[in-house]
Design a protein that fits this description.
By secondary structure, this protein is of the alpha/beta class. It is built from three helices and seven strands.
C-alpha cells in the first residue's frame, strides 16, 4: 500500500497529503494510514486534498472511515484545500456537511 506524505504541525496535528487520484486503487492505502495513525495515538488529523485531482466513492469512504476512527478516539478529522473536483463531489454527496473543509492544513484546527 502507498504511504502518503505526512507532517506534524506545531499544535501536534498530523497532516496527511494524498496526491493524484483518490480512487479504488489509492483509497485502501489512505484508509489504512489514517487508521494506523489513530491507533498510534493521533486523534487530530487533517487530510490536505490540494494535490488530489479526482476522488470517487472509495476515496470518500476512506475519508469517512478516518473521520469515524478519529472521533471514536476523542479527536476529529478535517480536510483542507479541496480542489474544485473534490468540492463538487463533496457537495453532490452532501458530505461537505460532515467533512469540514478549511483553506489550509495549518488552519484546520485553528487555535485548538
Amino acid at each position: 500500500m502507498t504511504a502518503f506524505d505526512t507532517r506534524t504541525t506545531a499544535a501536534g496535528v498530523v497532516v496527511v497529503r494524498p496526491e493524484g487520484r483518490l480512487n479504488m486503487i489509492a483509497a485502501p492505502g489512505l484508509r489504512e494510514q489514517l487508521t494506523s495513525l489513530v491507533a498510534a495515538g493521533t486523534s487530530r488529523l487533517v487530510v490536505d486534498l490540494g494535490g488530489v485531482e479526482f476522488v470517487d466513492s472509495s476515496g470518500l469512504g476512506a475519508l469517512i472511515s478516518g473521520l469515524k476512527a478519529a472521533r471514536q478516539s476523542g479527536g476529529d478529522l478535517r480536510i483542507a484545500s479541496p480542489t474544485p473536483q473534490v468540492q463538487s463531489v463533496l457537495a453532490l454527496t452532501s458530505l461537505d456537511r460532515v467533512l469540514r473543509s478549511y483553506e489550509s492544513a495549518d488552519g484546520a484546527f485553528g487555535g485548538e
